[in-house]
Amino acid sequence: RLHATDVTSSSFRLAWPQLLSQETGYYSLEYAPRAEPARKRTLQVSGAQTSLVLSDLAPETTYEVALIPESNVHYFPPQTTRVTTLAEEISPVQVLISESGPHSFQVSWAPVLDSVATYQVLYGPLPGNSAKVLEVDGRQNSTVVEHLAPNTTYLVTVTAVYRSGKEKSLSAKACTQEGERG
Predict the structure, then answer these.
(1) Residue 79: beta bridge partners?
(2) Measured between alpha carbons, how far is 130 from 132 in angstroms, rounded to an integer?
(3) Above 70 in pLDDT, residue 175?
(4) Which one of 89, 94, 97, 148 is most buried, by most CB atoms within 10 A?
(5) Can you give the pLDDT at residue 84?
(6) In the CATH hierarchy, which fold is given to the domain comprising 94-176?
(7) Burial 25-42 (b: 16+ CB within 10 A, else e)
(8) Bridge partners of residue 169, in order along the sequence
């Protein structure tokens, strides 16, 4: 049976039982993104091979793969499999603090990726260890942090929580404005 191993965001290894030999034929290997069958690519593979790495693939994409034994001795039915590449795990590359006031500021980040389930925004005054966490939907790229103390420096950490379970973080410092003297 044709199957895939070593799946990454841009490649996977195909392995199959030895059906042919160098002398008895070769394989045609066809693969295409399931959503775009017109982008099919075809490779010829020596009959002696039983594995092959496909690379330069798109992340988070399901590929339909067919291995067709072109034998001059026997007929072998095509072997097919379906392989989905992993999501690209990119950490947030920018954390921006804006619209800073005495009791709030806005935190925004980039890029926003389909592979992120949620963002966690952790913030707390420096120095100190009384951090609070905001959970933000993975489709959003900013949130407003409120109820802060004036004239205080905060450490803000944005963590991308990927659907795969991995997490990547980036931190920035933010200062609230001085409060109104009255």
Answers:
(1) 67
(2) 7
(3) yes
(4) 148
(5) 96
(6) Immunoglobulin-like (2.60.40)
(7) bbbebbbbbeeeeeeeee
(8) 159
The candidate with the shortest Cα–Cα distance to 113, out of 90, 135, 130, is: 90
Helices (H), 58-102: none
Tokens 């092959």 correspond to what residue? 52
**Contact yes or no for 4/13 (Cβ under 8 A):** yes
Q: Confirm if 119 and 95 have CB atoms less than 8 A apart.
A: no
> Could you give the CA distance from residue 142 to residue 121 in angstroms, rounded to a whole number?
10
Question: Would you kindly state where each structural domain of the chain is located, as residue ranges?
Answer: 3-84, 94-176
b vs e for 85-97, b when ≥16 Cβ sit within 10 Å of the residue's Cβ?
bbbebeebeebeb
Give pTM, 2 decimals: 0.55
The answer to whether 98 touches 108, Cβ cutoff 8 Å, is yes
CATH topology of domain 3-84: Immunoglobulin-like (2.60.40)
**Residue 69: closest CA among 57, 59, 61, 77:** 77
Examine domains 3-84 and 94-176 and report if their fold is the same.
yes
Residue 169 tokens, joined? 């973080």
What confidence score (pLDDT) does residue 65 get?
98
Give me the helices (H) in the chain, please.
none
Token digits of residue 9: 């965001």
Give whole-number Cα distances, 89 to 9, 92, 169, in Å: 9, 10, 11
Considering only CA atoms, which of 107, 108, 102, 15 is closest in space to residue 54? 15
